[in-house]
């Protein structure tokens, strides 16, 4: 694994990673458990499906006041013996004092059990960069009355070492790419080095022969987690487009080009609507808005030319 070089001048901007984690957990939940909590994965009857209980969880945490960002998912699954249980996944991105984190895990665990009367397991993923931050239990005692809450925990930083990183690169589990993207985003301070890692992870998707839909899903998540300064991001895009052309798999290129085309089309439509209002008033805009916003760029260009000499709106759109 290449060493990461640190440079204050080219440091990549850091960002909160809770949103891509929430999306990744929902899209690849079985793969997430299989990679990071295989013993839990083995106990679940996946043929019964899963249920994401976002509304139920939000009811519990609505009153919580915090400026920190977390990725939490409450998921309903069925065990192989037919028991319905809930799994609370908590992703800690920034790291904080152990007592606060562990107590929060305990509090949410108890709230869920109390409110919904279901068995619940709380699992923690630590995506921070503090090697010593490894909470796995919350304890409290008064005289002989004692609480001792323990929960499974995975520290992503442990996968940054050569052996564990090689396991991720060799894994056929798609969630390994998400974990690798998170690790590189966290531990790589030099933006040029990070750009190289971003392309390497993207290239792995193609080398594994994933279908177009899966590549686009993973690309979105990796692109979300690994953000580069504008200039390097443009360089990365050009490298990616050239690679896709070489592989004859223009998946991302096609989608992004369609986005550019759509943006140009929307811009042309707004210009034409403004011209129409200036020359014929707001009633004409209301009358032709749907036709304009639905038109292709070529048609919009033709109408924009006609409006220069048109005496009535009808002569533009005939």
Number of domains: 2
Helix content: 55-70%
Mean pLDDT: 86
Question: What is the chains' assembly state?
Answer: single chain
- Outline type: elongated
**Main sheet strand line-up:** 1-2-3-4-7
The computed structural class is alpha/beta
Can you characterise this structure?
- With 318 residues, the chain is α/β, with parallel strands linked by helices.
- The chain has helices at 18-27, 29-36, 38-42, 54-61, 98-116, 162-170, 175-187, 191-207, 212-225, 230-247, 251-280, 282-294, 297-306, 313-317; strands spanning 51-52, 70-78, 84-92, 120-126, 137-142, 145-150, 153-155.
- Residues 1-16 have low confidence and may be disordered.
- The chain folds into two domains: 18-188, no CATH class; 253-317.
- The chain is 56% helix and 13% strand.
- The radius of gyration is 26 Å and the shape is elongated.
- A hairpin with a 2-residue loop joins strand 5 (137-142) and strand 6 (145-150).
- The protein has 14 helices and seven strands.
- A five-stranded mixed β-sheet has the order 1-2-3-4-7.
- The N and C termini lie far apart (64 Å).
Question: What is the compact description of this entry?
Answer:
With 318 residues, the chain is α/β, with parallel strands linked by helices.
Give the SSE map.
Blueprint: H1 18-27, H2 29-36, H3 38-42, E1 51-52, H4 54-61, E2 70-78, E3 84-92, H5 98-116, E4 120-126, E5 137-142, E6 145-150, E7 153-155, H6 162-170, H7 175-187, H8 191-207, H9 212-225, H10 230-247, H11 251-280, H12 282-294, H13 297-306, H14 313-317
Helix pairs in contact: 1-9, 7-8, 7-9, 8-9, 8-10, 11-12, 11-13
């Amino acid at each position: 694994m290449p060493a990461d070089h640190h440079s204050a001048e080219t440091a990549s901007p850091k960002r909160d990673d809770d949103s891509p984690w929430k999306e990744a957990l929902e899209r690849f939940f079985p793969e997430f458990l299989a990679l990071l909590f295989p013993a839990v994965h083995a106990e679940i009857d996946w043929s019964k499906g899963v249920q994401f209980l976002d509304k139920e969880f939000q009811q519990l945490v609505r009153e919580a006041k915090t400026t920190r960002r977390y990725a939490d998912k409450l998921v309903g699954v069925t065990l192989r013996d037919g028991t319905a249980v809930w799994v609370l996944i908590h992703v800690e991105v920034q790291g904080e004092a152990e007592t606060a984190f562990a107590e929060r895990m305990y509090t949410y665990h108890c709230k869920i059990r109390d409110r919904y009367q279901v068995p619940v397991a709380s699992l923690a993923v630590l995506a921070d960069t503090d090697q010593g931050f490894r909470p796995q239990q919350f304890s409290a005692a008064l005289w002989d009355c004692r609480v001792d809450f323990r929960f499974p925990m995975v520290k992503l930083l442990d996968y940054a070492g050569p052996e564990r990183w090689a396991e991720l690169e060799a894994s056929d589990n798609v969630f390994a790419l998400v974990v690798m993207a998170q690790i590189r985003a966290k531990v790589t301070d030099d933006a040029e080095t990070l750009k190289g890692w971003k392309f390497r992870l993207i290239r792995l998707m193609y080398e594994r022969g994933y279908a177009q839909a899966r590549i686009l899903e993973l690309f979105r998540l990796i692109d979300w987690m690994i953000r580069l300064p504008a200039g390097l991001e443009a360089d990365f895009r050009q490298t990616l487009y050239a690679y896709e052309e070489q592989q004859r798999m223009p998946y991302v290129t096609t989608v992004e080009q369609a986005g550019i085309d759509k943006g140009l089309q929307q811009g042309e439509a707004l210009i034409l609507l403004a011209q129409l209002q200036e020359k014929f008033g707001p009633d004409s805009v209301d009358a032709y808005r749907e036709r304009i916003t639905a038109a292709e760029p070529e048609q919009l260009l033709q109408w924009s030319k006609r409006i220069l000499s048109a005496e009535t709106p009808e002569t533009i759109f005939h």
